[in-house]
Structure formats: structure tokens, C-alpha cells
Amino acid sequence: MEKVAYLKDTTGRKVFNFFNGLFMLIFTVLMVFPFLNILALSFNEGSDAVRGGIYLWPRVFSLANYEFVFSNSDLWRGFWVSVLRVVVGTTTAVICNALLGYIVSCRRFYGRKFMRILFLVTMYFSGGLIPTYLLMVRLGFMNTFSVYIIPGLFSAYYMLLASSYIQGLPESMLESARIDGASELVVFSKIVLPLSLPMLACLAVYIGVGHWNSWFDVSLYSRNGVWDNLQIILYRLLNQADALSKLMDAQELSQAMRSIQPVTMRAATTVVVVLPIIMIYPFLQKYFVGGITLGAVKG
After folding, report:
1. Neighbours of 201 (CB within 10 A)
2. Does residue 148 register a pLDDT over 90?
3. Is 61 strand, coil or helix?
4. Nearest to 159, CA basis, from 106, 96, 201, 113
5. Nearest Cα to 151, choosing from 139, 169, 167?
């Protein structure tokens, strides 16, 4: 009887492994195919791409889309603005949210529950777009780099991630440091931060991707174009390609412009924006997964 049960268990496990592998294979294909299709379109000649039928490989290879994108003189300036925003914004926001998470999880702080509730309210209620815009104007943040950094220093969601992870740290270790005379700032910087690297990396991925992909606040607060980032410049290039495609007279378009269509321009801009994130994400993936699971599971 034990042998029969073992055989049934083994057969069931094999069936499960087969369907699980099949499901993961299908899921991987569904995730990878759109990006490969976008990549193929970005390297295809525009007028040919309009015909459709391009899937994994360009039918008429062309670099005209990327030449059009990189020929813009403001592109590299916007790229460095985006890099600066990601570096400064991610560093400051990670530190501030980690510090806020430590404060609301510190049992010695009697106002931690009230502060937690106060931040949680902001997750469900906000002043709206117009009051926020007027506030930025009154604070003098228009056409400044600070408008990208200061409003995003604190987040209720990131505070919850940080506090849930910090609460899982051994309280005895923190108390022993306090008994030895360490201040709360020393405990936070010397003990909590080194032990919270997975959580910090998780926050860095979230916040960094958000800063890199952000363009709407740039369109609102950067009116003179000095602090335009890469995304808003590529967005304008895409609109320019749309305008060119609406010119019906063939004599008004050069051969180079006829090789560029909105569908291929959209693909090229997508690749330019997504590629840096794809290159960086594998190095932070293990910390990202660890930060999520360790910060969420409580005994």
C-alpha cells in the first residue's frame, strides 16, 4: 500500500511539474514577445512597417528611427537630467522613507501610531491636481530641479514597506545598542540601515523606475524647458513624427521622413526609455524579491 501511494504521489508530481513548466513557458513567451516585437519594429523601415506582419525580426532593416531620435540636440541634455533626477531623487527618497519607517516602527516613540495614520490618509485623499500645481507655484518650485525631488521625498506606501521590514529586525539588538549609549540616529544609521539592504534596494527599484519614467510633472512644472528630462523630449519627438505623418503631399516629405512612421518611432522611443532599466534591473532583482517577501511576512 505504501508503494502504491508513493507511485501515485510521484505521478501527480510529474503531472504538476509538466503543467507548471508549460504554464511558465507560455507566460514567459507572453512577456518576452511584446518587447521583441517592439525591438523589431524599431529597426524596420517606417513605410514598410505600416503594412504590418512584423513579429520577431525586421523585414526591411533601417536605422532611420534611431537616427531621427538621436539627432535631436536636446536628447543628451534630457538624458543627463533624467540620470541626475534618478540618482538624487532615489537616494534622498530611500533615506527619508527608511527613516520615516524607522520612526513609525520605534516602540519608544509614542506618536508613531498617529503619524502612521496621518500618512495613510494621504494614500486615499489628496488635494487634487490644481491645488498641487498652485502649491508648487507658491513655493517657487516652477522651473527648478527641486520640484522633482522635494514632493517625492516621502510616500505612505514606501513607509509601510520600510516599517514592516524594520519591525522584523531583532528588537534586542536595537535595545542593546541603546543601553550602550547609542542615540536613535546612531541606531538607525549603524544598525538598521546595514541590516535593511534588501528593503533599501527594493525601495530604490520602485523609486528609481518612477523617477526615470516620469514625464507628466515635467510637462507641468518645467515651462522653460531647462529641466526637461529624456521622457518629455522623446514624447515631443513622437508628436513630431505624428505631425509629419499627417502631411498628405508627398512633395513636402523627404525620403528620410517617409522612412519614419509613428508606429516605428513609438517603438524606437520605447526601446530608448526601457533599455536602461532592463540593464540595471537584473543586478537588483535578488534584493527586490527579498525586500518584498521579508518585509511582508510576519510571524
Report:
1. 20
2. yes
3. strand
4. 96
5. 139
Helices (H), the chain: 2-42, 46-49, 64-70, 75-105, 112-124, 129-138, 146-149, 156-166, 171-179, 184-187, 193-195, 197-213, 216-221, 230-245, 255-258, 262-296
Answer for the pair 262, 241: CB distance below 8 angstroms, yes or no. yes
Does pLDDT of 45 surpass 90? Answer: no
pLDDT digits (tens, 9 = 90+) for 273-286: 888 878 877 776 66
Find the mean pLDDT for residues 238-260: 57
Q: At what angle do helices 197-213 and 156-166 cross, to 10 degrees?
A: 170
Query: Which residues in 55-87 are b (16+ Cβ under 10 Å) and which e?
Result: eeebeeebebbbebbeeeeeeebbbebbebbbe
Distance separating the N- and C-terminal Cα atoms of the chain:
38
What is the C-alpha radius of gyration for the chain, rounded to an integer number of angstroms? 25
Q: Which of 163-172, 234-243, 248-257 has the lowest mean pLDDT?
A: 248-257
> Three-class SS of residue 197?
helix
CA distance linking residue 137 with residue 147, whole number of Å: 10
Mind listing the pLDDT tens digit for each residue in 251-266?
445 555 556 777 888 8
Asked whether the predicted pLDDT for residue 28 surpasses 50, the reply is yes
**Which three cell numbers mark 46?**
517606417
Closest by alpha carbon to 284, among 86, 123, 151? 86
Q: How far apart are CA 55 and CA 83, in angstroms?
A: 32
Q: Which residues of 169-195 are buried (b: 16+ CB within 10 A; e: fewer)?
A: beeeebeebeeeebebeebbeebbbeb
Task: With both helix axes pointing from N to C terminus, report the angle between 75-105 and 156-166 in degrees, rounded to the nearest 10.
Answer: 50
